Amino acid sequence: MSDMDSLFLRIIDREVPAEIVRENDRVIAIRDINPQAPTHVLVIPKQRYRNAAELAAADPQLLAELFTTAREIAESEGIDESGYRLLFNTNADAGQTIFHVHMHLLGGEWLGGMTGGPLKG
User: Fold this and answer.
1) Are 104 and 87 in contact (CB under 8 A)?
2) Phi, psi (deg, nearest 5) at residue 93
3) For 16-38, how does the pLDDT look when each residue is reduced to its tens digit (9 = 90+)?
4) Catalytic residues
5) N or C, where is the chain less crowded by C-beta within 10 Å?
6) How high is the pLDDT of residue 66?
7) Alpha-carbon span 62 to 109, nearest angstrom
C-alpha cells in the first residue's frame, strides 16, 4: 500500500488532520481539501476496500451505510431538499487516485449535467 493509498487510514488513526463531519465505528466523513462544490464531503468506510465494486461484493451492508451517512450529512448541511450528487470513482480511468473506496457527496449549488471532467480522488 502506498502513502497515497493509506491516506484515509492515517486520517482515521488521527495521524493526518482532517475536518471530520460525521463518524461512527464503521464510517468516517470528512470535508474534501479541494472542494468541487460548496458542500463536498468524502464518506469513507474505515475498513479498507480498493473501490466501490470490491466493497459491494464484500460488504453490501457497509455500502448501504455509506449512503445512509451521506443522506444524514445532506440533511445536516441543508442540501437534502435542493439536491446533491453521490459519486464513486472506480479505478484509474474514472479518476480514482486514492485506492481506498470513498463516496463524494456534492451539493450546495446547481451541479448541472455530467459534461465536465472527472473528479479526482
Assistant:
1) yes
2) -65, -20
3) 999 999 999 999 999 999 999 99
4) 102
5) N
6) 98
7) 28
Beta strand ranges found along 8-114 (DSSP E) = 20-23, 27-31, 39-45, 84-87, 103-107
Domain 7-107 fold is HIT family, subunit A (3.30.428)
Residue showing cell 472506480: 90
The Cα 71–Cα 64 span in angstroms is: 11
Cell numbers that stand for 91 in this block: 479505478
Q: Which of 70, 98, 11, 97 is nearest to 46 (CA)?
A: 11
In angstroms, rounded to a whole number, what is the distance separating the alpha carbons of residues 113 and 87? 13
Alpha helices in 1-121 (DSSP H): 7-12, 52-58, 60-77
For 34-55, the pLDDT digits (tens) are 999 999 999 999 999 999 999 9
The pTM (predicted TM-score) of the whole model is 0.89
Split at pLDDT 50, 70, 90, the class of 117 is low
The arrangement of strands across the sheet holding 20-23 comes to 20-23, 27-31, 39-45, 103-107, 84-87
